Amino acid sequence: MSTKSIRMTEGNIKSIMIKFAFPIFLGNIFQQFYNIVDAIVVGNIVGQEALAAVSSTGSLVFLLVGFFGGLFSGASVIISRYFGAKNTDMIKRSIGTTVFFGLVSGIILTVVGTVFSPAILNLMDTPPDVFAEAQDYISTYFSGIVFVVLYNTACGIFQAVGDSKRPLYYLLVSSATNVVLDIVFVAGMNMGVKGAAIATVISQAVSSILAFYRLNRIKDVYHVGLKTICVDKSILKDIINIGLPSGIQNSVIALANVVVQSSINSFGSVAMAGNGAYSKIEGFAFIPINAFTASITTFVSQNLGAHQAERAKQGAKFGIIFSCVLAEIIGVVFILFAPQLISIFGKEAEVIAVGASRAYVCSWFFFLLSFSHCIASVLRGAGMSKIPMFIMLSIWCVLRVAYINVVTHFFHQIELVFWAYPLTWFISSFLFLYYYRKSKWYEIN
Q: What per-residue string of b and e applies to 154-193 under the rule 16 or more CB within 10 Å gives b?
């Protein structure tokens, strides 16, 4: 195997997981940088309404992208499992099927996003003063969404075989491209939110092209070329069986967040901008979570594929603890410097107050958010993706929306909307802890 890949079935567990997670950690910083550069440039150069327009589209983007991202988590689990088992033929078949699936998914997502996004913005009660700019941003973004899907496809392949460094390199290049183009299109050419969206699309195209160029040049079991693209029906079925629950989970949770966003929209553009600015900063709390959930899933998948259940259990425990501690440290920092961090996106005092208010409610509980995602990643790596789906749908979707509808009916206070997040994080964490301790997920092969 290539020296760039990491076989997680041997060696020191802690050092291997950190070595794998660290490039993802850095990559997520630059991925988040994608998002906040748009908001910083738009908020400071174009204005508050433009910031609200860009921020309000986040839930809609994740609604569609999250579904396919969940599906591809199934592909990563399958590839990791065969990689751990050292089954070369099945690794190649899994990767070929994954790339084909990625191409088809990218095309579908482009059509669905561009056709239905205006209708969804209407359903979200997007205010008239930001609707046109929100539609401009989202339609442009989805016109190039195929590059996002293809990059995530390539990234999933690299991570499944233990190579988390290559995606980082490509994100470094694309993030720098995004910064330069944002300044050129928005500040230099006065293209507004559409310019920010174009900059993002071009940057994502750069990362996907670089990733597939590398996969094509690799002389290894995970080489990707036109001749390696295939459709293995049994593997595609396995990908869907594992990935579909995660895709449904992501999309329905995102749909619930669209409902939450609609509630926030009812408080006006100031609330939208403040909440949107907070969401950009909160993305940094997800950085250790995403890094270690990826590490946990790959570690569990490879070791269960190699029939090393005890090692899989040890890696899962370490990843959960490490991720929760890092997430809480970020939460405390956010609480201490909330107004200063929110002010990066705009200087309006009311916007800063709204963003800081949500920080004071949610940031204390980032460890719960991390815990739920980590347990879900353990189960997903074991091929048990239906359990996380049921827990998160019932708590993060149904209960969260029900709570918001009830409290906003009696009290029109945005802080009560914010409390929906830590309350549902707590309940889901309790359920995940109970299932994790009672189930024998490590016996799944």
A: bbbbbbbbbbbbbbbebbeebbebbbebbbebbeeeebbb
